[in-house]
Amino acid sequence: MKLIDTLHRWTGGLIGLLLALLGLSGALLVHKNAWTLAPHAGDPRVEDVRQLAETTQRIMADPAGRPQSISYASDDFGLLKLLFDNGGGAYADQRGAMVTRWSSQWERPELWLFDFHHHLFSGETGDWVIGIAALCGLFFVFTGLILWWRTRRTFEWRLWPARMSRPAIVRHHRDLGVVVAPLLLLSLVTGAVLVFRPMAALLFGPGAPAQIDKALAPPPPRDAKLGEGLDWAAMVMTAKARFPDAELRSLSLPRKDNGLIAIRMRRPQEWLPNGRTTLWFAADSGALVAARDAATLPMAVKGYNLLYPLHAAKVGGLAFRLVMTLSGLAMTLLGTLTVWTFWFRRPVKPARARQMAISA
């Protein structure tokens, strides 16, 4: 038990601040669409496929101003988001008129906050660090429950420590931790599996990671450059004709020279905000190459697709967003007070305590 306590304290002291920052940024991002300020952000989502096709054609027709991707408006955010290959971007209304532009993500708080929470501003390296932090968080939850069990008779529900002394903070930390443990488990498990896909085997069975990789892989690359004068509107119309009940979510130019234009859609039964229903078009001709219906994916893959909506509170409306906000704020409080007590409120050693008593 002493070893568990030592590991819990030292790991928390070393990584608690990172978990606190991830919890706070996550709590803010849950409500991102509500606090993102831009003209027409509150417009209702346009469902007319012809208007969407015309808007796409207008945006993508000019090679000089063509974005790398378009993210279409959703029910709670009424703007198109355009991203360019130089790191800049823009918001446009649903007829394609630009309402605001940026040359760097640092000009938009919702963008750099997202990059911090998902990548720590460090790409794949940041992903790994966040994944390890999530695993440490799971270690804290399980060891914390073990350590709390010894003191369960002194449990007292408090949002804030009774005093800012180390014993009061430690007691509050354990009691609050046991209350929010289910929420922390939800946030940490979903976050860890999203970063470390092999961990999906723990939730969906031993063969799940390979099954997920295979099911979500794009078609084989094509030796095709982006053609001139492509009929972008026809691609949108083709996608909507193939999946009439699906919501148009994004269009992306070829990545890593794979020669494929991708359109993602979201069918009604999908929780994932951008959906997994995808169509691929040849970059040189715009001809449909392949299509994937999310409704036909294996059960393990469908389960995996539920993780991000749960983690980011993209389902369940305001009630679930508040639940995940509570999870993030609890992680912030637990992590911050852990670091503070570990580094600045260390327990007084017995010899020093006796010396202080004699001096007094």
UniProtKB/TrEMBL annotation:
- What is the designated name of this protein? PepSY domain-containing protein
- Keyword Membrane: yes or no? yes
Q: Does the keyword RNA-binding apply?
A: no
Species of provenance: Sphingobium fuliginis (strain ATCC 27551)
From the record, give the transmembrane residue ranges. 12-30, 128-149, 176-196, 318-344
The record's annotation in InterPro entries points to: PepSY-ass_TM
Q: Which UniProt keywords apply?
A: Membrane, Transmembrane, Transmembrane helix
